[in-house]
Each structure stands twice: as structure tokens, then as C-alpha cells.
């Protein structure tokens, strides 16, 4: 069982990122459940705009797609910007859209059997809407969703505190993150043993 986290911050490495922090916390919970994985900060890679598997001209998406295909679990971690997921997160969804044309010998999308989850951080409202938008997009692309697989932290409105600057993780966030991990891993294991039937 393997997990992949796409961190969709607008901030390049090695600068600190709240989205990266919450993704790391989710991945730590996965590891406690025996699931190894990798965290990728998408903005560090030259992912071209488009809806094809390979947009050519040095496009980094094909290498990142290989990681998606090798994973059982995909986590999207994004900040809130103007009430929406980051443009980087939207680009990931757009690139994943190419999977709608990719099927196995029995007509199933290659993403069938993969489970998705979402992590959101920000200083403004939008966590529920972002989760809903990402869940619908991920499900359209073929990912399966367990119950309660969104974890988030939204700071007080119009204040400047970031998640990465908190002295400790709020228990409500930590508890939600644990639930996300337990439910996601449980479903991924079930689907590994009982794949979807041919379409």
C-alpha cells in the first residue's frame, strides 16, 4: 500500500508551507497505519497547462503521473485563495482529466481502485467548498472517496496567522486527520482485495 501527496502551495521549496505541513501530518498518520509514501510539492516541477498526459516541451507531468499510477492513495493538499483551491491544485485536476481516456483491458479507468483525500489550509472561509469541488473532480476522474476524508484548518477571518505558525496542532484538526487516514487506508485495502468489476 502506497500513498502520494501532491502539495499545491504556490510557494516553492524550501520555503515553509502550511499546505506542506498538513500534508506531512496526514502522511505521518498513513505511516502509522503501515502505508509508506511520498510528498511532492507540485510547484517545484514544470507542470504545463493542458489536459493531455504529456504536453511535450519538457513537461514534468508524465513523471508525476507515474507516481499517481504507482500509488493506492492520492492526497491533494491546497491553500485557500479567494475562497478557491490554488491554481496549482486546479492544474493538477486538469492534468488528471486526461485519465478519462485511459482504460484497462476491461474498460475500467486506470484510477479505479485508487482512493483520494483532501487537506485544506487558509486564513479565509472556503474549506468545505474546496473539499466539495475537489471531491467531485476526483470522483469524476475515477478516484474513490471514503467518508470524512477532508481535513482542514481555517484561521480567524482577516487575521495573518498561518497554520505553519501555530504552536501546536489543534486537537480537532489532529483528530480529523487521523479519521481521514484510517478511513482512506481501510477503503484502499478493501479495493485492493475487491477491485471494481468491468464496466
From TrEMBL:
Signal peptide: none annotated. Residues 9-148 form the NADPH-dependent FMN reductase-like domain. One of its GO terms (molecular function) is oxidoreductase activity. It comes from the Bacteria. SUPFAM superfamilies: Flavoproteins. Gene3D superfamilies: 3.40.50.360. Pfam families: FMN_red. This is Flavodoxin.
Amino acid at each position: 500500500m502506497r500513498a502520494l501527496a501532491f502539495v499545491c502551495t504556490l510557494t516553492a521549496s524550501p520555503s515553509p508551507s502550511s499546505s506542506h505541513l498538513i500534508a506531512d501530518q496526514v502522511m505521518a498518520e498513513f505511516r502509522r497505519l503501515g502505508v509508506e509514501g511520498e510528498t511532492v510539492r507540485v510547484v517545484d516541477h514544470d507542470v504545463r497547462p493542458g489536459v493531455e498526459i504529456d504536453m511535450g516541451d519538457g513537461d514534468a507531468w508524465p513523471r508525476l503521473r507515474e507516481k499517481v499510477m504507482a500509488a493506492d492513495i492520492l492526497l491533494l493538499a491546497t491553500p485557500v485563495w479567494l475562497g478557491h483551491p490554488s491554481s496549482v491544485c486546479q492544474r493538477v485536476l486538469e492534468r488528471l482529466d486526461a485519465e478519462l481516456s485511459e482504460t484497462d483491458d476491461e474498460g475500467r479507468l486506470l484510477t479505479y481502485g485508487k482512493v483520494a483525500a483532501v487537506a485544506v489550509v487558509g486564513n479565509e472561509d472556503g474549506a468545505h467548498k474546496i473539499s466539495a469541488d475537489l471531491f467531485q473532480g476526483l470522483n469524476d476522474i475515477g478516484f474513490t472517496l471514503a467518508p470524512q476524508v477532508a481535513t482542514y484548518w481555517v484561521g480567524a477571518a482577516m487575521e495573518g496567522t498561518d497554520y505553519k505558525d501555530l504552536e501546536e496542532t489543534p486537537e480537532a484538526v489532529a483528530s480529523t486527520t487521523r479519521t481521514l487516514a484510517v478511513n482512506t487506508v481501510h477503503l484502499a485495502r478493501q479495493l485492493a482485495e475487491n477491485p471494481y468489476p468491468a464496466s
